[in-house]
Each structure stands twice: as structure tokens, then as C-alpha cells.
Write the C-alpha cells for this entry.
Amino acid sequence: MRWLAFLLILLAFGCRPKSDSQRGGIPRNLCQYSKLLTIWRVEDGYAIEIQNPEHPKARFKFLLKKSFKRIAALSATHVGMMAALKQEHLLCAIPDKRYLHAPKVKKLLAKGSIIDLQSEQQLSVKKLLAKQTQALIYSGFGPEKAQIKRLSTLGITCIPNFEWRETHPLARAEWILLFGALTGQFEKAQLHFRKVCQNYMRIRKQPKLCNTNPNVISGYIYGDQWIAPAGNSFEAKLYADVAFAYYFNERPGTGSCFSSIPSILTKSASVSIWLNPGQSSRSALLAQYPKYKYFPFFEKRIFCYTHNTNFYWEWAAVRPDWVLSDLSNIRDNPTADMHFYKELKL
Amino acid sequence: MIRFQHTEIGYHRPLLAIEDLHLQTGKVYALLGLNGSGKSTLLKTLAAQITVLSGNLLINDFKVEELAQNANLRAQQIAFVSSRFEGVEHLSVADYVGLGRIPYASIFGKLTADERQLVHDTLEKLGLSYLSEKRTLEISDGERQMVSLARAFVQDTPVLLLDEPASFLDFLNREQLLRTLIPWAMHTNRCVVLSSHDLDLCIEHDLPLLLLAQQKLNVVQGLSKRDVQQLLIEKA
Amino acid sequence: MFIGFTLVLVLSCLVHLELTKVNVLNEVQANILWWEFRFPRLVSALVAGAGLSLSGLLMQNLFRNPMAGPYVLGINSGASLATALLMMGGFTFVSSNLGLVGSALLGAMLAATFMLFVSWRIQQTTSLLLVGLMFASFTGSIESVLQSWAAPEEVKQFFLWNMGSLQQLTAQQAPWLIAIFGVAVIWSLLLVKALNAFVLGQEQAFQLGVRIKTVRFSILAITAILAGSVTAYCGPIAFVGLAIPNLGRQLLRTQDHLHLILFCLFFGAFFLLACDVFSLLLEPYFSLPINVLTSLIGAPYIAYLVLRRS
């Protein structure tokens, strides 16, 4: 009898929070696609959790109460996200002006209100402090780890951005929500992302003109190997969404995959499109690696994002619908004007 | 064999003038002089490493300038033993002695059977056969100096120069060196010049002395130690 | 013994060719694969291995120092700097092979001459190696400065070249490399007598009838030609030039440079080929740049030599 009463009490207490939350609603994760980024709206701001893809247990959590006014970005993608929200004026430092496209940022850079950090590997603490940096967004490649720790102790909120590790292009684009929260433009970011999603889905469902799916290879020779996005990467997902038969589809992995050069040479007779060779002309490709001329697909159609390379690095992540539309055009309508891509002249 | 004719010797500027002097074959000359008197400059001139400033220096009737130019001829006329041979890793004594045949060797430096026999015989005559297969790094200073002498003998030149060959040797080895050199010079008609600081040793063996003092070179023989010392100091 | 060496070398060539074999669809492709990939890779390994070892042997002879070598004495650094200037200094985009090889040769030659001057002033091994090290880090920093100015494309190009590779040689370049190598080998065989005399130091060599200046220039030129051309085509490859000649002296226990040259040619070629065979065997699992392999084997051996010496 006594333990029954105890159980009842326990139940009563145990149920209490549940009923509470039912009434108020569980704080809902505002991210749909991303596997690494979680954002909840809380009473006085946003709760943000970022999963480190390398260490399942390493989660970066923080509560954002007030948006930041001075943000340092360490990658071109971050600059693109800021530009998409038209919040360039909140930037105080950018990675390397040689890779910069954003015209507004260039102006601010010339005025001196934004500084050029030049290299991610050698973060200048002095420069960052001089610019009264409040938040720093980094891509988490690894080498900057020690510096990040130091900057954190100096009161700068350092936020990792693992957008490049996502496996779905829309998940990548969704990271704009993080930038929305940081800059106090969350609704605008949501609006932007919704537009991108709709556009992406529309292009994906477009009927394909060409009946047979073209064989497509991506990547280039790096050192003694061919390096390309692996079968589970977001690039592979993009290719799948325009019904390309991607050469490395069967290769596991969400990042890059490698292949020996002779194996590419001998097994690529059916490839009809080469994407992202990393050069803007065939002569530049040959200058880089003279043996490219022996690859069967060297004589086929080659496309690269060299319409404006820096623009691509800034905007490809935030506008996957544009990338998809380009790929769809490459497939069915190669003479159309494209956002990023350009065909290499024969 | 070695003839000076109004010869001015020096390194860029004159250090020593020799009017007329003839060094004969079959003899071992000891070159004596205080530090800085120009002993090594004279020896280097005799070795054709530096040429004379004016006048003539004939070595076996060849002008020293010609010997300086013609590498092979030089090596067939003059052999040179330096004060110390420190040994070379992995180089065997027999190979080292064999290097004395380089001036005569074919393009790859291979020794003929006769030359190998010569190396063998020379080592045997000097009582060094037991060293033949040893590495030059493994043997003693005294042994190395004797082996260097063997190499010079194998080079088979009319003139042999030794630059303070005794300075790293104990008295037993010094004795052995001279006891080898003197009969060799006499029996095979060579002209040997060695520079030295060991006056006692030179007098004891009654070597003709080349005294180098006050920019002059004098040949003396049979003087007492005190007289020689006097000559070296007085003129300085 | 050299018959044995030849057999081993031929055998490892066959193994190498077997490993680079790929199933092909047609004759044309088989031809391309042979002439552009398998054959140049084999040639690279053989010539780079033999050439670097030979240049190491000559350097060690000239400097009378077993720790000398094209890499430690900054010959590679000179070639590397010259290449960096060519690739990133905005002189020209690397389209002409002649430009690349020419500049690497010039750089190697200048570095060799510089180090020779230094070696006259500094007799001590350690100091000389320190100067070589400083020279290398000096050229390294100039390269970094160049990198910060250069266009990203050029930086990437240089970075890749700097990793060292046996697979960059093209079929057109292969005959050049072989010809340069052939000239250098014949030239050094003509020096055998002088090299043997140089073992005793330059004064003794002079008295043994060696034309010192001619030989000294020849050694520098051969070293620069070998290290320069190999570096130009294959990038800097470490430790081969240092380790193989030492191994030769240790195994043959001789200073006869005819034997040492032959050993360096055979064993140097074999060593780099074996390294490449190793990397081919590992290829399905992970890829190791050739430089990593040569250092993995070469560095401990050199450390052992140094320890044994002291």
C-alpha cells in the first residue's frame, strides 16, 4: 500500500514537466536538413548547438541572447552567408582578400572598417582585438585550434562552422540560419532559406530533356592522384539530383576520395562531362599537368565554376539551387547563362 | 737535380732570394729555419704549388712554371709527403700506397699487375707488409707516416719533398724514417728535401743542412749543433 | 657482384612494371599508358635514384665530408628557389620545360658554388651542415614570401612540385632526363682517378697530378646537372643522395670511386625503385609521397651513421 502511494506520487511528479511542455511546446529544432547544426528559440534568444563531425561527443553549445555587432569570418563561405543576409557591415575581419568577391565587403575593406586576416593559419590576435571582435566564425580544419582557445579566453565567442561537412546541399545552405541568429536577422534567414529550398525542389523535379543520364566525372589531379568528392558528399547529392551518373558514386565517404591516375585513364571512356577541373582553360590544365590530354574526357565537355571563381566560393554554399540550376543547364541546355559555371573552350 | 738561378721566392712578395744553388741527387737535405723564415713557402715552391717571382728554378731540368702547368709531368717529377696523414675511412693501406701510381694510371685508375707487385714489394722492403690489408684509420701515426713514405716511393719521382715529416712521430719512428730515407736516396739516386725542427736528428745523421735565415739559403754540413744554432739566430 | 646487381635491378624493374600494369580496352590506350605513365615513372625512379646518389657521392668527395649531399648542402634548395621564382615570381607560367630545367640547374649551380666557398672558410662538418640548413630555411622563407604574393594557381602548382613525385615526368621529357643523366655519368667516370686522389685532400691530389680547378668545377657542374635536373622533373627528393654513397662505402669498404660510382648508380636506382614499388603496393590502402618513403628509410640510417661516428 505504501509503495503504491509512493508510486502514485512519483507518477504525479514525473508527469508534471511533460504536461507542462505539452502546453508550452518543446523548444522546436529550427533546422530541418542539417545534421550538425541545431537551433532552438528560447525565451530571451536562441540556443545553438553545433556538432563536431569528427568527435560525436564534442558539441559546441551556447546561448545567444544578444546579436553580435562585430563578427570575424575565416572563410569565403561565411562572407557569402553574410552577404546573402545583406549584413556585410557587421563583419570586422575577412580571410584573404585575394579570394574575395563581395563588392560591399571590398568597399568596407578599402575604408578600413574591415581588416584582411590574410591567412587562417596565422590568426593575428592583435588585429582581432584591435577590431573589438565579438564573435569569430571558423571552419574547424584543425590547425587554428590553439589560437581559437586563446581567443576564447580573451572573451571572443568562437563558433565552428562545419557547413562543409554536411552531406546534403540544402543542409549546407541551412547554416545561414546560424548567421541569421548571430546577426539578429533570423526571420530574414529563414525566409531566404525557404526560398532556396523551394527553388531547389522545383529544379529537381523539372523533367529531364536528355533521356540517358550522362556519365560525369568531377575533380582533378592532385600530386599523384585524382581527387574528387566521394559518393556520399553533398556534391554527389547535387549530381544525383540532376540525374547525373557520377563516376565516384559507389565510393563511400562524405568528403574527398582518391583514385590512381591510370585507373581513371583506363576506365573513363564513357565519361562525357568533366566538372570542376579547377582551371579556366584547357591550356591552363595542360600547363598544370601535361598528361591531361590523354584522358578520354579531355576532348569532351568540361565545365568549371570559373565564371567567377571567388563568387562561387562565397555563394555556392548559400545558393545550392543556383548550383543545381547550373548543373541542370549543363545537362540539357549548355548554352544558357549560368550562375557559376562556364564551359572550357575547345 | 734542383737548381736555383737568381731565384726570388715568395707568396706575392719576395721572402727569399737564392743566387745560385744546386741540390744533388742521392742526398737527403734537411731544411732548417725558425718559424716564419719561409720554410713552407720554399717547400711549396719546390712542390710547384706556387711559382717563383723571378729568376729560374729547375727541377730535373724542368722549369717550375712548366711543372705548375702540366699536372701529370709534375706528379712524375715530384712526390710530396705532408706532415701528417690522418687516414681516410674505408681506405686500405694497400690502396693508399697504390694511389702513388695515379700519375701513370689509365683512365679508371686501375693498377696493372706490375704496379700491384711494386706496391707489395715496397711495403715489404719497408717492413710494412703486415699493414697491407688494414684500414688507414686503424693504424698508428708512426705507421701512417711510413705508409705515406711508401706511397711516395711508389710514385717513383726523382724529387721527394717531405713537410716536417717527423713532427707527429716519437724518436723511434723518427729514427726509422731517416734510416729508410737516406739509403733510398743514395741507392736510387733521388733528391730528397725534408723540412724539420729536429736539429739533433739532422746532425746525428750528418745530413746536408739548408739553413734558412735572413732571406738567404745556405748549405752547410758537418757543423756542430751550437754552430748551426748560432747561424740560425745570428742572421735573424 | 655487378652482374648480381644488374639482375636485381632488372628484376625490380619487372616488378615495378607488373605493379603499374592496368587492364586496358585497346591498343591505343595501352600505348598511352606505357609511354606516358609506366615508362616515365620507371625512368624517373631509376634516374632520380641513380642521379641523386651519384651527385651525393661527388659532393661527399669534394667536401671530404660523408654528411654532404645535394639535399643537406642546399643544392636542392637552390634548385627549389629558382623553380619557385620561375613558378611564382611572375617571370613566366611554367609552360616551357627548358625554362624549368634551366632555372633549376642555375639555382643548383649557384647554391653549389656558394656552399663550396663556405666550405673553404669553414672546415668543421657541423658548421658546414648548419650553413646548409640555414641556406635551406632561408630559401624556404623566400619561397613563403613569394607564395604570399603569387596567384593561388601558381602557389598550388609550386606546392605540388615541392612534394616530390616520380609521376610527373612526361614522355617528351624522359629522353632529356636520360640524356642529361648519361652525360653526367660519363663525365663522372672520366673523373675517377681525380676522385680517388681527392680522398687525400686537394693538396695531395695536386701533387698526384690532378688538375684541381678543372676537377672541382667538373664536380660542381655534374652535381648541379644531376641534382638540378632530377629536382626540376621530380621535385626535391630527400636523403637518397646522402644515404646511398655512405652505404656504398660501408658495404664495399673501399674508396675506389670506380666501384663507388657503379654502386651508387645501381643501388641508388634500385633503392628509389624499391621505394616506389613499396608505395605501389600500399596504394590500395593509402598514398605515400615518395619523399616520405625515402625519408622514412634514409633518415634513421643517417642518424645511425652519425651516432656510430661519435
Summary: Residues 2-309 of chain C form a domain with the ABC transporter involved in vitamin B12 uptake, BtuC fold (CATH 1.10.3470.10). The longest helix of chain C spans residues 27-63. The mean pLDDT of chain C is 85.
